[in-house]
Amino acid sequence: MNRAMIKGVTPERTILDAMELTSDPELDVRFAESAHQILADLVGGGAALGWVEPPSRDEVADLLGHVVAAVQAGDAALRAAYLDRRLVGLGYWLRYARPTHRPHADLEKIAVDAAAHGRGVGRALTAALIADARKTGIEVLTLDARGDNTHALHLYRSLGFTEYGRLPDFVAVGEHRYDKVFYMLDFRRHS
């Protein structure tokens, strides 16, 4: 019987970093496929993750390969959330490539399986990525989000991010238009 089905027993949540993911062959093999499924399902349901149509397996594999290579170069962090060894979320940040922006990074994506919403997975992933950024010496962690993503915006504010800009009706999804909202967490002020 699934432990989650037993009354009073909750699934074990584990947040792994890229090195832990790639050092476990069983997890490494399933990670790209599970990540693709989460991202495709979320985008298919209208989630604001940067795609209009669900990404292909190859797109997700290429993206993850790029992020893992950046992690290995010290220019990124990748985190994956598991509930009892089932991937339920992922997120990453990338250091800015421009030489004048190298002390800073952009929180690129936080994606949580719809079935795991409300379990603190997004908060745990984001908090782990913030800790990674702080430990790596990132000075300012930025992100942008679609203005109608109220749950994510609330989460970011609760973790210390502040809004520093907004482009009204900037994001086009078919006939719909949404604000693009910019947030930052300035570690120079939050030591």
Keywords:
single chain, 191 residues, alpha+beta, Aminopeptidase, 5 helices, 32% strand, globular
Any chance you could write out the topology, listing elements then pairs?
Elements: E1 13-17, H1 18-23, H2 25-44, H3 57-72, E2 76-83, E3 86-95, E4 104-112, H4 121-136, E5 140-146, H5 150-158, E6 162-173, E7 176-186
Parallel strand pairs: 4-5
Antiparallel strand pairs: 1-2, 2-3, 3-4, 5-7, 6-7
Helix pairs in contact: 2-3
Task: Report the end-to-end length measured between terminal Cα atoms.
Answer: 46 Å
Backbone shape:
globular
Mean pLDDT, all residues? 90
Largest sheet: 7 strands, mixed
Question: Which structural class do you get from the secondary structure elements?
Answer: alpha+beta
Overall CATH architecture: 3-Layer(aba) Sandwich
* Fraction in beta strands: 25-35%
Would you give the CATH topology? Aminopeptidase
Main-sheet strand order equals 1-2-3-4-5-7-6
Number of strands: 7
Give the oligomeric state: single chain
- CATH homology superfamily name: Gcn5-related N-acetyltransferase (GNAT)
Helical content (DSSP H or I, runs of 4+): 25-40%
Radius of gyration: 17 Å
**What is the number of independent domains?**
1
* pLDDT < 50 stretches: 1-9
Give the count of helical stretches: 5
Write down the secondary-structure element order. EHHHEEEHEHEE
Given this structure, which CATH class is correct? Alpha Beta
